[in-house]
Amino acid sequence: MILTKGKTKHVDCLDQLLPIRDALDVISGKWKVLILTSIMRDNRRFSEIQRSIPKINPKVLSKELKDMEEHQLINRIVDETNPGLIEYIATDYSHSLKKVMMELYSWGVNHRKQLLGK
Predict the structure, then answer these.
(1) What is the model's pTM?
(2) 83 falls within a domain
(3) Is the dihedral of CA 100, 104, 24, 57 positive or negative?
(4) Which of 2, 23, 25, 3 lies closest to 12, judged by CA?
């Protein structure tokens, strides 16, 4: 395993890097984890998500939501009685990222302490 001690062969390393690269492709970038966090915190409408994330551009948010839907992290729900009402909800599959997101949060808190001495 790449994250354990001991010698590994080059081929083993490549086999272990592919899933990590795949995961990073899905959650990479500045916004995806923040958007998913916002949706998981019950911000379901586009405007709610946008307000909850400082400095996100509406065009970027729209693109990221489409990408996240393609990766089955969120569902886009259109209210049939009111077609202008669109909500985004986290899928059960996206909840498998909660542990990773919490680890990123913890690491980020510790990193700020490391850099800022707080």
Answers:
(1) 0.84
(2) yes
(3) positive
(4) 2
pLDDT digit string, tens, across residues 55-112: 999 999 999 999 999 999 999 999 999 878 999 999 999 999 999 999 999 999 999 9
User: Is 62 within a domain?
Assistant: yes
Question: Crossing angle for the helix pair 98-116 and 32-40, nearest 10 degrees?
Answer: 120
Query: What 3-state DSSP class applies to 62?
Result: helix
Residues near 112 by beta carbon (within 8 Å), at least 6 away in sequence: 118
Domain limits at 109? 10-116
Torsion angle, alpha carbons of 77, 79, 84, 87, to 10: -30
* CATH number of domain containing 75: 1.10.10.10
- Tell me which DSSP letter residue 117 carries: -
- Whether 49 is covered by a domain: the verdict is yes
Domain count of the chain? 1
Q: What pLDDT, on the 0 to 100 scale, is given for residue 43?
A: 98
**CA 112/CA 109 separation, integer angstroms:** 5
By residue count, the chain amounts to: 118
Place of tokens 């400082």: 54
